[in-house]
Amino acid sequence: MQILLVDDNPHVRGSLKQMLEQLSLDIEYILEAGCDLSAIRLIQKYRPELIITDAKLLLLSEASLLDQFYEPQKRSRIIVTSSHEFVLKAFCQGGIDSLLKPIEPGELEIALLGASGTGSGYGHPYLEQAEPQRSDHMM
């Protein structure tokens, strides 16, 4: 698995990288970037299978370019991190997994297994809460 860690805080990226390296997953490489255009350039160049990113990157206007960098047969999975629960709930409603900071190793592993298709999927409490709200809006 190729992974890109995106966060403005080098300490957060370092902690995540250390947690990932301790998991028994087949990780080919882990790239790192801040929440800026350098992350977009790494996505273009390396096309990682998994992007673990602070919500800040996806809120940048340039981040809408993420969809343009992938062929339909090779799309990245995204796990969003944030220190704000309301941000995570909004992303979960769109089918993206999320992790509340500070990140716990067990939660990271569950999100990775769900993103890689080897786990039980997105059983995150925010997503479970989001489902009824989505169906209510559709009525």
List the SSEs and their pairings.
Blueprint: E1 2-6, H1 10-22, E2 29-33, H2 37-46, E3 50-54, H3 55-59, E4 77-82, H4 85-93, E5 97-100, H5 105-116, H6 125-138
Parallel strand pairs: 1-2, 1-3, 3-4, 4-5
Helix pairs in contact: 4-6
Give an overview of the whole structure:
With 139 residues, this protein is of the alpha/beta class. The protein has helices spanning 10-22, 37-46, 55-59, 85-93, 105-116, 125-138; strands at 2-6, 29-33, 50-54, 77-82, 97-100. It has a five-stranded parallel sheet, sandwiched between helices. β3 (50-54), α3 (55-59) and β4 (77-82) form a beta-alpha-beta unit. The chain is globular, with a radius of gyration of 15 Å. Mean pLDDT is 76; it is low at 121-139.
